[in-house]
TrEMBL record:
UniProt-listed SUPFAM superfamilies: Bacterial luciferase-like
One of the record's GO cellular component terms: cytosol
InterPro entries: Bact_Lucif_Oxidored, Luciferase-like_dom, Luciferase-like_sf
Taxonomic lineage of the native organism: Bacteria, Pseudomonadati, Myxococcota, Polyangia, Polyangiales
The protein's name: TgaE
A single MF term (Gene Ontology): oxidoreductase activity, acting on paired donors, with incorporation or reduction of molecular oxygen
Residue span, Luciferase-like domain: 1-318
Length: 357
């Protein structure tokens, strides 16, 4: 089983400058290859301290020059916020810089603050994503981009440098709603899952995605990539304290950034699947209940407990890869590094032994 590491540059601790965050997160990123991780991933967010990595492909290009073998994953490039021809060029360039190590993750976005900041109508995001993804993915295979859609218009232009190699089998997208899952299946790309819903709901949506993928593409869907928040400690009680504080803190940051308390998503075309979540979050005690639920979905505890949790995720989702995030929500960097090193030495070898990458 493939094991990756995510670095997200979260900067909501008032005692840290953004410079502090970058110095320390990059220091942790430099450990990924020597510790034996198969891949390292970054995220894209804008305008708040939820994460301060506005250009994930620039970040991965930096890592391409600092590493030799580890794969480099975007989690994700949010297509509605970008000119799609530029994304195709950047993807090809990064693939050349890294000697073909790029894992291309894409998504459509959720944060109102980000859509408004870029002047993009959020209700159009699903259609923009579908058109942009189709144009980019076709272009990466044939070496030129051309498209005439409702939102994406592109006259034929060559991609230079030309694509390093095919992106088939190494392109993924984040999907939370069933409608988005169907789009991914029709595009023929893999699914990137971040635990935030009951696993029986995820399993049902995966089943429908796999059915559509099989019908459209004539082959089975690739195993999903699952990303999760990790806290590994030899002391189970201490691990739980850190998990409650910091994984819970990450969830609180996510709630603020995405404005999950309220009803704007429930009223927005294309985001109807968030209605139940916003209703639960807005109910008395809803925030505390959902925080506890999110924390318990993640992998924390002793090395044995972390291993069992990730194996449970594999059983429930059929995941072929797990990506752990080790630093978040103002966690002291010595705690994050200790957790990372312990996971790499005592958990990761057992996970890798489960199945071929």
């Amino acid at each position: 089983m493939h094991v990756g590491m995510g670095v997200i540059f979260q900067a909501e601790d008032e005692g840290r400058t953004d410079g502090d965050v970058y110095r320390n997160e990059l220091r942790l990123a430099d450990l990924a290859e020597p510790l034996g991780f198969d891949s390292i991933w970054g995220v894209e967010h804008h305008f708040t301290g939820h994460t301060v990595c506005p250009d994930v492909l620039q970040y991965l290009s930096y890592l391409a020059g600092r590493t030799r073998r580890i794969q480099l994953g975007s989690m994700v490039v949010v297509l509605p916020w970008h000119q799609p021809m530029r994304v195709a060029e950047q993807a090809v360039m990064l693939d050349h810089l890294s000697d073909g190590r790029f894992l291309f993750g894409i998504g459509r976005g959720l944060g109102r603050v980000e859509f408004e900041g870029f002047g993009v109508r959020q209700e159009d995001s699903r259609e923009i994503f579908a058109e942009a993804a189709q144009m980019i993915l076709q272009g990466l295979e044939r070496g030129y981009c051309e498209f005439d859609g409702k939102f994406v218009k592109q006259v034929r232009r060559e991609l230079r440098p030309r694509p390093f190699k095919s992106f088939r089998g190494r392109t993924y997208a984040a999907a939370v709603s069933p409608e988005s899952s169907a789009i991914l299946a029709k595009l023929g790309i893999g699914m990137l899952i971040m635990p935030q819903k009951p696993w029986d709901v995820v399993a049902a949506e995966l089943g429908e995605y796999r059915r559509i993928f099989r019908e459209v593409n004539g082959v089975e869907a690739p195993p999903p990539v699952v990303a999760g928040w990790v806290l590994c400690d030899e002391d189970a009680a201490r691990a739980r304290r850190h998990a409650v504080e910091h994984i819970g803190g990450y969830w609180s940051s996510l709630v603020r950034h995405y404005e999950l308390v309220g009803d704007h998503l429930a009223k927005m075309r294309g985001y109807e699947s968030y209605r139940t979540l916003q209703q639960m979050m807005s109910a008395p005690g809803g925030i505390d209940m959902m925080t506890e639920f999110f924390v318990n979905l993640q992998s924390f505890g002793t090395p044995e407990q972390c291993y069992e949790k990730i194996m449970d995720i594999k059983r429930r989702s059929g995941a072929g890869a797990f990506v752990g995030v080790f630093s978040y929500a103002g966690m002291p960097y010595d705690v994050a590094e200790r957790s990372l090193r312990l996971f790499a030495s005592k958990v990761m070898p057992r996970i890798k032994a489960q199945a071929p990458a």
